Amino acid sequence: xxxxxxxxxxxxxxxxxxxxxxxxxxxxxxxxxxxxxxxxxxxxxxxxxxxxxxxxxxxxxxxxxxxxxxxxxxxxxxxxxxxxxxxxxxxxxxxxxxxxxxxxxxxxxxxxxxxxxxxxxxxxxxxxxxxxxxxxxxxxxxxxxxxxxxxxxxxxxxxxxx
Length: 162
Hints:
- By secondary structure, the protein is α+β, with helices and mostly antiparallel strands.
- It folds into two domains: 1-35; 37-161, Umud Fragment, subunit A (Ribbon), CATH 2.10.109.
- The chain is built from three helices and ten strands.
- The chain has helices at 5-35, 63-66, 134-137; strands at residues 37-42, 56-61, 75-79, 87-94, 99-102, 112-115, 120-124, 140-141, 145-154, 160-161.
- The strands form two sheets. Strands 1, 2, 3, 4, 7, 8, 9 and 10 form an eight-stranded antiparallel sheet that branches.
- Strand 3 and strand 4 form a beta hairpin.
- 23% of the residues are buried.
- One of its GO terms (molecular function) is serine-type endopeptidase activity.
- It is found in: Mitochondrion inner membrane.
- The active site is at residues 46, 90.
- It comes from Ceratopteris richardii (Triangle waterfern).
């Protein structure tokens, strides 16, 4: 047994060093995903015709929301106010303090005049007839914004900057 011990010691050191490198790499990936950029796939009809209903892959930068550099017209990813396990993709139509005229989801509703409260944004899908958005759940707290869409990378040939 003692003849194998000298051979195992360098192997153990190499395994340890590689484990440390892997851990550092995974930590870097986590930091980049949480604070710089992440990849999201969006599916569903709410952002038609901007995005496909069958799924587009988007790059979402996280710095704009951290430094509050979101502006009207930006497409953002946000935690759903109704179900925080879901991430929604919507367009920013109003920032805090702005007065908006909001069209109803269906023809039976009436036009509303909304003032976006402090610390909130008004989000709507581009497909007004088929989108659950701020018209349904109201203004969205700024803290639920995950990031701003800046590039569509899938489908191939459909690269679009936002």
